[in-house]
Amino acid sequence: MAFSRFTPAATGAARIGLGLAAVGRPGYINLGRARDLPAPRTPEALRARTHQLLDAAHAAGVRYLDTARSYGRAEEFLADWLTGRPEAADVVVGSKWGYTYTADWRADADVHEVKDHGAAMFDRQWAESRALLGGRLDLYQIHSATQDSGVLADPAVLDRLARLADTGVDVGLSTSGPRQAETIRAALEVERGGRPLFRTVQATYNVLEQSAAPALAEAHAAGRTVIVKEALANGRLAGPEAPGELREVADATGTGPDAVALAAVLAQPWTGIVLSGAATEGQLADNLAAARLRLDAAHLEAFTRLAEPSDAYWRARSALPWT
């Protein structure tokens, strides 16, 4: 099933995807991991946790699963789960290329991943993703494309992506950093064979980092599917760390601040899919409550005032430890 044939019909829990960044490797930049993950965090333990989450997500109606080459062994864990599960024939799988995982299964590594958006990296990582996920791979995205990396102006890479699109795999990109809007707008201009190359745009957006919203609205208006990542700001919008405005609405609606934060993203008219980065089944259930939560205009207006300057947000994110 191509990603582009899935999203127009997505409703309810199907508008929430499950991202595997938090469970495919022992270290990640998310608050509260010490209480979320098993000890020790062996590959076997995280494989089991990933499979538990995938089972729960599918049973709840989640149909988009998002992974990447740099998420440790997440592609492998997902491929294992897909094998022998005919009931999972209806899920749509997206992965990403452009970062290599380098932490050697350590949470305390000095360097966890290395970025390279060159054509040789694409060739290697596409072969690796394809070897694991085979024909189940519906969407392949540039991982954290930026203007500085030059990937959107590299004809060798763009030609490879166009050939991939010709085989039926949808092509997209994710963005990161304070200049996301510039990258998104540049991507909207990229064409191959007289057609837009990128079918999807995945970006960081949450009530603290709202700077990409106008560009995401433009992407939606141009027919691209918008996927939102880091809607909980790496844990800053969940649990006791959440701002009081979110906790007040959560108390009034009988949900958690994480559901409120996700519902605020789902309320944006340009949002196609918002990713849950849950590491436990309880977190997943709490996140999925967002699909049933309707925020009023006053709540959404109040949340716009939580936005931080983009540069400040990304400085704070870069200071979060890998744990």
From TrEMBL:
<protein>
    <submittedName>
        <fullName>Aldo/keto reductase</fullName>
    </submittedName>
</protein>
<dbReference type="Pfam" id="PF00248">
    <property type="entry name" value="Aldo_ket_red"/>
</dbReference>
<dbReference type="InterPro" id="IPR023210">
    <property type="entry name" value="NADP_OxRdtase_dom"/>
</dbReference>
<feature type="domain" description="NADP-dependent oxidoreductase">
    <location>
        <begin position="50"/>
        <end position="306"/>
    </location>
</feature>
<dbReference type="InterPro" id="IPR036812">
    <property type="entry name" value="NAD(P)_OxRdtase_dom_sf"/>
</dbReference>
<dbReference type="InterPro" id="IPR053135">
    <property type="entry name" value="AKR2_Oxidoreductase"/>
</dbReference>
